[in-house]
Write a structure and sequence with these properties.
Elements: E1 3-5, E2 12-19, E3 28-30, E4 34-41, E5 43-48, E6 51-56, E7 59-63, E8 69-72, E9 77-84, H1 86-92, H2 95-101, E10 109-111, H3 114-125, H4 134-147, E11 156-157, H5 166-177, H6 185-191, H7 195-206, H8 210-228, H9 233-239, H10 245-256, H11 263-270
Parallel strand pairs: 1-3
Antiparallel strand pairs: 2-9, 4-7, 4-9, 5-6, 5-8, 6-11, 7-10
Length: 277
């Protein structure tokens, strides 16, 4: 598994995001901080280590420190993201209290009731970094999750998956490796399929050619990263699988049908991906 490590700051933070397009993470990552991601809308397939889970609106997905994870989905989504460090927990809570609060992390997906979700949403809307009572807010959220753990995790072991169609395997392979796929033979050689059959798969499922589908995944990933990361357009374009800055700009302009002057607006979430050439 191709895992990249990202470091989250050594404190406690609540943030919110709204993504108006489907997005597939190109690689797994992990970080020192604990993470709780509560889906407000949409649906995501979340991979944690070698397990897959389906998260829907009002589901909380929990990631322990240094646990490899990634997510994917074809629909717009929004969520509440909670990060906190081991140091922060140790600073404010006794060993016994910490053990009790962290029990919820034995579960990967926890479904929240309407009331509990609305409570956490209000907390998130009013959250202030560095407030003196933030440790109490964290304890309250963890207590809600611990009270909600009666929900059943929906994990499916990667080693015991049900038999799936070859077409689905091709799509999943492309979703996992679109950053690295350069030509159609990168797909056909893996599955011993004809180019015509691979084209039929994407025409039937997405009304696109394989190239158009891959470019859509790359554009969505680039737009997401340009909105949330402080890196140059060229650097992100190359990371997302484009051959050059110029290649990215050409595909991007065709995808969103905008003039050069409006591209920055689209990077900030102001445009919707329509057709890909």
């Amino acid at each position: 598994m191709n895992t990249k490590k990202r470091f989250i700051f050594d404190d406690f933070r609540i943030s919110q995001e709204s993504i108006n397009y489907g997005w597939t993470m190109p690689y797994s990552h992990c970080h020192v901080a604990y993470e709780i991601y509560i889906l407000k809308s949409g649906e995501r397939t979340v991979t944690i280590e070698d397990m897959e889970y389906t998260a829907k609106a009002m589901d909380a997905t929990l990631f322990s420190s240094n646990t490899s994870h990634k997510s994917r989905g074809d629909t717009p989504f929004s969520g509440i993201c909670i990060h906190f460090s081991e140091r922060y927990i140790d600073l404010y809570f006794t060993t016994a209290a910490k053990k009790q609060l962290m029990k919820c992390f034995k579960h990967k997906v926890i479904s929240l009731s309407d009331t509990d979700f609305e409570t956490i949403q209000r907390i998130s809307d009013n959250f202030k970094e560095n407030a003196s009572n933030n440790f109490l807010i964290l304890a309250f959220i963890l207590d809600i999750l611990n009270r909600s753990v009666n929900s059943v995790d929906l994990g499916v072991s990667a080693g015991s998956e049900k038999k799936i169609k070859k077409s689905q395997r091709v799509i999943e392979y492309v979703n996992e490796n679109y950053v690295y796929i350069k030509k159609i033979s990168d797909i056909t050689d893996i599955f011993n399929l004809s180019e015509n059959y691979v084209f039929q798969i994407f025409r039937k499922n997405y009304s696109m050619t394989p190239k158009q589908y891959i470019n859509k995944l790359r554009i969505n990933n680039a737009c997401h990263r340009l909105k949330y990361e402080k890196k140059s357009i060229k650097s992100i374009a190359l990371d997302c699988g484009f051959d050059s800055y110029e290649h990215f700009i050409n595909v991007f302009k065709k995808a969103v049908a905008v003039r050069q002057a409006n591209i920055k607006k689209c990077f900030n979430g102001g445009c919707e991906i329509t057709s890909i050439n």
